[in-house]
Amino acid sequence: MPVDGNAKGSHDGPVAFRATAECPARGLLPVAAFHPHLSAMPHTIVIFGASGDLTSRKLVPALYNLMRSGALPDHTRIVGFSRTPMTDDEWRTSLRETTAKHCDCGPLDEPSWQTFAATIHYQPGDIGRPEDFAVLETRLRQLEGGGEADRVYYLATAPQFYEPVVSSLGAHGMAVQDHGARRIVVEKPFGTDLTTAQSLNAHIHTVFRESQVFRIDHYLGKESVQNILALRFANTIFEPIWNRRYVDHVQITVAEEVPVGRRGGYYDTAGVLRDMFQNHLLQLLMVTAMEAPARFNASAVRNEKVKVLEAIRPLLPEQIAAAGVRGQYRDYRHEPGVPADSRTATFGAIRLEVDNWRWQGVPFYLRSGKAMSCRTTQIVIGFRQPPLELFANDTPMSAREANRLVIQIQPAEGIQLHFHTKVPGAGMHLRLTDLEFSYSREFAGRLPEAYEPLLLDVMEGDASLFARADEVEKSWEIIDPFVQAWASPDLAPPDLYENGDWGPMSSFEWMASQGRTWFDMCPVLT
Ligand code: BG6
């Protein structure tokens, strides 16, 4: 693949993973292969917010794919709870349609759908009416035949319902682990700032112990994100250079081509900082910067991640302006639900410093936006230039691109190492070229959707890939000062950018003022 900065491209839809003649693919292991310990106990997954988008677009398709691949434990049942009056069959019929649309699995296979549909049940009820939880508990007991079962309560509701659900589960003894494990999954947003996150944690802890709580960030379920752990901790070659002696800076970009669209009402109160930075971007930063845990278990992994957040240098209010750039795409104010004078940032770039021995002096640039050039999530480890100029007759080193490692999280999952080579012929003429690993060439089959491994992890009780209470609170502590500063009426409105740009001009100028450039490359899908 040619290395080509500032390339612009566009794509959409699922990426096919296939072998090529030169490079026969090796098969993906079924997700089940990584979950040999799932108990033989029956499992009940209770979804609050059963008639919502998350359930139909993500959760049920993920469960269906797990079932098809044989990864879902045999005695698993799914119980939906929401206000919409529906029978079991009506919910099954509606899920059949949405699953066919969102499962990324080709035409629905009738026999496997029928097997799956038989595990689906629906219980109408109102989260605001505690007595409906008594009815739900009776129904669950009935379905579980009065015996033991591990339960997962999945909060797929609007965030204002998290606390009432937790209270009612507590009031009806539904968190007590006498008849099997009781776990709760909490979706993002987990609070809207440090104070609300602390109070939500405190509330949850009145009913559930921390070991029962799974705060989900679907980025951690992405294969290519987990692969960062493999890249760093299953290899020896990267460790010696993964530090301030060799790394000049790190860029973490989550660019989205889609605009805000129908989500204007929510998005205008969240903005890019709450929607993307506090969760997904900080998670990517943590896995990039963390030390190797002594063991691969939830407590060791999360201890190391939290240490990264603890090492991030707090910024004084007067330092915030210089530590970031805000942008808004030109058409944003015309989106439904967005006020005509909105000052919400749909693009943000911030600079964080990790004050520890490994990263002292290495800036971490985090950037994300809607309506950008293309959909790409990538982490760029930008290396330092060599200490000595030998080839000044070619492009001088100051104008030459330095080595970099590009970790493509999505949609062209893979890794590229960029380095200089001599162009054949007379003279020492150099060109940047690359070594590449690509999932699509290396592995056959469809990559599991992020929710698939995460759902199995919850069923197994493995919280390694879920945020701990202190982790979410620390994340808010880092992002809150930016949110507050960017909301100040004294500040000019965010800089405009055209739909399809890589953000506002000020973002390029800001990087240039620090002697660096963004690595803006749309991935090439094969
Ligand atoms: C969600 C945000 O958490 O992540 C959305 O609320 C965003 O605004 C989405 O589009 C991005 O997820 P992915 O997996 O498509 O990169």
Notable traits:
526 residues; alpha/beta; Rossmann fold; Dihydrodipicolinate Reductase, domain 2; 6-stranded parallel beta sheet; 14 helices; 17 strands; globular; disordered N terminus; binds 6-O-phosphono-beta-D-glucopyranose
Short description:
By secondary structure, the chain is α/β, with parallel strands linked by helices. The chain has helices at 53-68, 88-102, 110-117, 130-143, 162-171, 194-205, 223-233, 264-289, 298-311, 317-320, 439-442, 451-460, 469-486, 505-512; strands at residues 26-27, 43-48, 76-82, 120-124, 150-155, 182-186, 213-215, 247-255, 324-329, 347-353, 363-369, 376-383, 404-410, 414-422, 430-438, 443-444, 495-497.
Biggest sheet details: 9 strands, mixed
Assigned CATH superfamily of the largest domain? Dihydrodipicolinate Reductase, domain 2
Bound molecules: 6-O-phosphono-beta-D-glucopyranose
Distance between the termini: 10 Å
Which CATH architecture of the largest domain is right? 2-Layer Sandwich
How much of the residues is beta strand, in percent?
A: 15-25%
CATH topology of the largest domain: Dihydrodipicolinate Reductase, domain 2
The chain-level structural class is alpha/beta
Q: What sort of overall outline do the alpha carbons produce when their principal axes are compared? A: globular
Describe it:
The chain is of the alpha/beta class. It has two domains: 40-215, 3-Layer(aba) Sandwich (Rossmann fold); 221-512, 2-Layer Sandwich (Dihydrodipicolinate Reductase, domain 2). The chain has 14 helices and 17 strands. The chain has helices spanning 53-68, 88-102, 110-117, 130-143, 162-171, 194-205, 223-233, 264-289, 298-311, 317-320, 439-442, 451-460, 469-486, 505-512, and strands spanning 26-27, 43-48, 76-82, 120-124, 150-155, 182-186, 213-215, 247-255, 324-329, 347-353, 363-369, 376-383, 404-410, 414-422, 430-438, 443-444, 495-497. Strand 2, helix 1 (53-68) and strand 3 (76-82) form a beta-alpha-beta unit. The longest helix has 26 residues, at 264-289.
